[in-house]
């Protein structure tokens, strides 16, 4: 069974966008409360899983 999911997310310009687009093996996003760390991290994991089918999140 295949499920299609459409997610629309635009990273905030600056650190959040840089983190999401970063290709380094061990990126880090440090920021204060409400800076979007969790959202950016989730988006990065989802993107990885979509480009690497069968990967464990």
Automatic annotation (TrEMBL):
<protein>
    <recommendedName>
        <fullName>Phage terminase large subunit N-terminal domain-containing protein</fullName>
    </recommendedName>
</protein>
């Amino acid at each position: 069974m295949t499920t299609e999911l459409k997610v629309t997310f635009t990273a905030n310009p600056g650190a959040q966008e840089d983190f999401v687009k970063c290709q380094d093996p061990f990126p880090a996003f440090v920021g204060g409360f409400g800076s979007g760390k969790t959202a950016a991290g989730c988006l990065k994991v989802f993107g990885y899983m979509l480009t690497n089918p069968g990967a464990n999140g």
